[in-house]
């Protein structure tokens, strides 16, 4: 079973792709929008990644979820399973290729701090970034169980990095 896309070397166009999509995504949110962030590996210069733009959106509440779902669907986003209470997940594919993932979290949700902290750790620590990249490439090469296996096997690395700076997962 394959991953949603292949890991590639860092592409300096990824931040531009985030910025372009950010402008479209804003239309799905009214007063509940607090902030939008580029997260995940494509937000980390020099880090190889699956070329899927991860967007983290902070909202005050999930008060307009049905209307938001309609707008996001019109933009090509399909809602997936909630990753936890207050953490909604959407994905956008072009054909069979995943291009974007959107995480919408209620203000104060632990996932916000975790995603932003891990992104900053990778941006600021070349050794950590290299070890994470090596792990991801190894996991891709040995993967037989698809995305669930890939995420499960890189999870301990992320948890350890967050624990080292005092963030609990």
TrEMBL record:
Pfam families xrefs: GrpB
Domain of life, source organism: Bacteria
Cross-referenced Gene3D superfamilies: Beta Polymerase, domain 2
Protein known as: GrpB family protein
């Amino acid at each position: 079973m394959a991953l949603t896309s292949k890991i590639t070397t860092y592409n300096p166009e990824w931040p531009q792709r985030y910025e372009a999509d950010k402008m479209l995504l804003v239309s799905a949110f009214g007063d509940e929008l607090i902030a939008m962030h580029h997260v995940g590996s494509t937000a980390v210069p020099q880090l190889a990644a699956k070329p899927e733009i991860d967007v983290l959106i902070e909202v005050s509440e999930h008060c307009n979820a049905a209307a938001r779902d309609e707008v996001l669907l019109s933009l090509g986003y399909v809602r997936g399973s909630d990753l936890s209470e207050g953490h909604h997940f959407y994905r956008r594919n072009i054909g069979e290729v995943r291009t974007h993932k959107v995480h919408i979290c209620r203000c104060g949700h632990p996932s916000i701090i975790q995603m932003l902290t891990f992104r900053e750790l990778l941006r600021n620590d070349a050794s950590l970034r290299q070890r994470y990249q090596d792990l991801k490439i190894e996991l891709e090469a040995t993967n037989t169980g698809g995305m669930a296996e890939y995420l499960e096997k890189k999870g301990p690395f992320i948890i350890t990095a967050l624990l080292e700076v005092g963030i609990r997962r």
